[in-house]
């Protein structure tokens, strides 16, 4: 079996969560790597949409921004950003949205706005961008994030984007009818929401990771499912495709 | 009121006044960097800057002290990290305090759409369960008069000036955008005045597809020929995004002194002609 | 849920049910006449028909007794005169009573836009000082929460089925529209199901411009190859509008018997293949 | 001097009202003839916009519908109908709109909806189409209509589109800031609104027409300006261009 690192484990696991008929709103960074890995392995027909307006894009290298020329050149169609947010995202055409965060709580609410007080921030983060409406308009949300006590917190400093709110039926109380964060994929494990209360429960642990590792890297009290699976390891083929993709990407971005 | 062909200097001097609300748009693609430099060179002050992704272009304007307020929805250097000048202004009021009005992308896109459509506000399904409405009084909610559904509303964006970059103008001043077209057309239609910098001026648009993304000359104020004017952003069909420079910006902007040095060297002692150089370098590399 | 290639018969049988709300769009250009005939042939009943300009296509459906309600904004034969079957239904309830919901073009265009955008209603500057709000309860007014300006609101159009005609599909079922594109894309995106009849099926869309007006196969239900399927409307790049037939329609439709004769001869005893004939005639004339 | 008929007089007079820098929303029929005549004579740079989405169109023959292929083929750009009504018309980009009517009152309010009661009509007319918003969103409106007692009435059966409402400042009371119907061009004369009360006043009479002709063809009490001009006759060139345009149009429409 090929050696892999925890980022690769997370990326491959995220990629495997995607289906061939998904229409996926892709963010930059890990989501982009996972979505394109899925496209280059088990989901060749997956539709990747970037918020810059490119629909059905098939980039050969990963974009640095969400609007690199490669995305447009390989897309089926490129629409104005107004149309992207109005007809495609708000119009309910996207099945899966990928989101990451600076801070996350156990109900999948995320913060990408500020650490500290909004008006007097300790750290000013980039802000919500597309996330507040991606979080509520996509059929379901996959959260992808490396675990740490600083990131996985009991209470986030600012609710940039809604997950399950205060849990239970709280999400629906905002008039939101989409499923919400159905899966949280980290470098250590997979968590899924409790069927009623909606807090995250560990349902699968990556090979070589202990329960204590997860507990040590989580700021809320971790709950494990009755039956916890072991996450399947990346295949040699997946790793090869992923590494080739990153190699092509690095060459392209440095070469300019 | 047909578009005038102008130099970049004259276009900025004529159209942009201290205190104006200015929207410089381009979603990763076609960002009007040369025009941004000219605004810095002309030391415009107290601008309210509007842009979905402030990006390097507003990092420069904010660091140079042109802005009193920023309206935005995502303030990072895509794929790289922070906008250090933006953060220094928000966190430390350097070089001056910066008021911010923060939205989501959906809100900004809808607000541009509403501005182009002559509406006072945009109504959309947004901000549900999100906290920005607590800190931004320009986010309100209304009820659908038919279903009672709660919908978000934000004021339309109606800038004094829109500044965008496009691939082509014809000799009449009609404008053609291709590729990732962002919200540029909306920004121009929403603004009182507009400056369009272009890669190329062509005799006519006879070969352009029926449904291309265009602006007629009577919907535009000033057209300026600035080849390479989007660098380090890109112009589809002309040159690629200079991703290496976006990464290099992180170091340049991290420190106030290195930023000021960069500003002196490349902006105050530069001009629109400089934007042709990286373009030529890229071409010669491609040919090599 | 990717688009299925089907025969016209199967597409209408599968997607259109009695009592459905159906939007058949095409603004003068690309009107799906062949699909209209198939709906008549299959004797669909109690349809709510939505269309900005009901035109000859709905004159036929209404005269054939398919419709219980019409939602529209301009009900004439452009440049010719009345839609006699529409008038006979409204004025004399023949062949059955027809309920109408009447809007302006701006309202309908905004309502399609809102439908595509997943909104429950469209908000626009409309109907100011006009009398339609008195007779149409689906026109309401709201206040801009920022300026207090009074704005019109109408419910979004969310049809059960949208039926449109396009120039091309590729083998995956992606769709390309060119020329006067009307509200077709919006109608399809707003609908639960959609049928797209096309002039041509091509291997791929590699030569199509970046910003063409398109629909991906996963946003479409059924794709049907019907060359000439827009006649007597037209398909830019394929055949011209048969203006002479639009003029001739005035006489055909003026009288119930002549309309019924026409229906028997050209619809009940016809089929989608018939739409290729005028197309070939036009070509041979052009070549002569 | 060349002979001309009253329709030609009306068309030429309407064409002359247009300026070279106008952006004009064109309806089918007479407005289309007048706008294209202007373009082919004194206003070569005029922008003609048809509600089908064609911007800056220069048709060689007059379209039968507002969406003939010729309009798109000769246009600078063709946009979706949604965009036409939202960005261009409602967005305030159109300087002049041309409207006709079945019924018109002295304040320039027009009816193209029904004769008789709305729910029980004597004659069902085509309806408003673009007119209700053209009437309020264009910089100004030119009304063009053949005079008759049936058409020029004291009270219209249905207010499809707003003119000056009940007169005076009534138009502004609806939140409308555009100028309204600044000119009414008929086959007999030109009328313009009273500066305060806004009812139409005859300001120019076509050659060979008497005041009594106008009074006999108007259902409201006709008012004449203190100084009434004589409308200049069509030039030989204008008539030639107009007749050539109609001849080309007829040949094209019959030939199919």
UniProtKB/TrEMBL annotation, chains A, D:
SUPFAM superfamilies: NagB/RpiA/CoA transferase-like (SSF100950)
Domain of life of the native organism: Bacteria
InterPro entries recorded: CoA_trans_fam_I (IPR004165), NagB/RpiA_transferase-like (IPR037171)
Coiled coil, from the record: none
A Pfam family of this chain: CoA_trans
GO MF terms, alphabetically ordered: CoA-transferase activity
Keywords: Transferase
Name of the protein in its database record: 3-oxoadipate:succinyl-CoA transferase
Natural source organism: Thalassospira profundimaris
């Amino acid at each position: 079996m090929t050696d892999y690192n925890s980022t690769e484990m997370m990326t491959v696991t995220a990629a495997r969560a995607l289906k061939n008929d998904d229409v996926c709103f892709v963010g930059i960074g890990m989501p982009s790597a996972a979505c394109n890995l899925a496209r280059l392995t088990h989901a060749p027909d997956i539709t990747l949409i970037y918020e810059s307006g490119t629909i059905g894009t098939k980039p050969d290298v990963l974009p640095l921004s969400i609007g690199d020329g490669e995305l447009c050149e390989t897309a089926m169609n490129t629409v104005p950003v107004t149309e992207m947010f109005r007809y495609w995202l708000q119009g309910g055409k996207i099945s899966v949205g990928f989101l990451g965060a600076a801070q996350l709580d156990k109900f999948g609410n995320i913060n990408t706005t500020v650490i500290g007080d909004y008006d007097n921030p300790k750290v000013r983060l980039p802000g919500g961008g597309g996330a507040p409406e991606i979080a509520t308009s996509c059929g379901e949300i996959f959260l992808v994030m490396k675990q740490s006590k600083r990131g996985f917190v009991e209470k986030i400093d600012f609710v940039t984007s809604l997950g399950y709110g205060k849990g239970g039926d709280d999400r629906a109380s905002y008039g939101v009818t989409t499923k919400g964060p159905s899966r949280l994929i980290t470098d250590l494990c997979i968590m899924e929401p409790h069927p009623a209360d909606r807090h995250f429960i560990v349902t699968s642990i990556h090979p070589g990771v202990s329960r204590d590792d997860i507990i040590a890297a989580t700021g809320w009290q971790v709950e494990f499912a009755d039956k916890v699976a072991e996450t399947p390891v990346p295949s040699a083929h997946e790793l090869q495709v992923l590494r080739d993709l990153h190699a092509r990407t690095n060459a392209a971005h440095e070469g300019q | 009121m047909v578009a005038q062909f102008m130099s970049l200097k004259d276009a900025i001097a004529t159209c942009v006044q201290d205190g104006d609300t200015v929207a410089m748009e381009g979603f990763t693609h076609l960002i009007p960097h040369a025009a941004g430099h000219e605004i810095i060179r002309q030391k415009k002050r107290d601008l309210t800057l509007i842009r979905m992704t402030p990006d390097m272009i507003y990092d420069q304007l904010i660091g140079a002290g042109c802005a009193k307020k920023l309206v935005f929805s995502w303030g990072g250097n895509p794929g790289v990290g922070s906008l250090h000048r933006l953060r220094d202004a928000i966190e430390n009021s350097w070089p001056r305090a910066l008021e911010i009005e923060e939205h989501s992308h959906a809100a900004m896109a809808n607000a541009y759409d509403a501005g182009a459509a002559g509406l006072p506000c945009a109504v959309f399904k947004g901000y549900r369960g999100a906290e920005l409405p607590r800190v931004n009084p320009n986010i309100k909610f209304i009820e659908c008069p038919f279903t009672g559904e709660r919908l978000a509303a934000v004021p339309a964006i109606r800038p004094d000036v829109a500044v965008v970059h496009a691939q082509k103008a014809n000799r009449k001043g009609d404008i053609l955008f291709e590729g990732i077209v962002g919200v540029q057309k909306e920004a121009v239609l929403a603004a009182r005045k507009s400056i369009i910098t272009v890669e190329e001026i062509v005799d006519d648009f006879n070969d352009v597809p029926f449904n291309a993304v265009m602006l007629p000359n009577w919907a535009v104020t000033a057209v300026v020929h600035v080849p390479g004017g989007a660098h380090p952003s890109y112009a589809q069909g002309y040159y690629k995004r200079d991703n290496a420079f976006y990464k290099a910006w992180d170091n340049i902007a991290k420190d106030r002194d290195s930023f000021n040095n960069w500003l002196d060297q490349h902006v105050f002692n530069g001009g629109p002609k400089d934007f042709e150089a990286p373009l030529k370098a890229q071409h010669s590399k491609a040919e090599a």
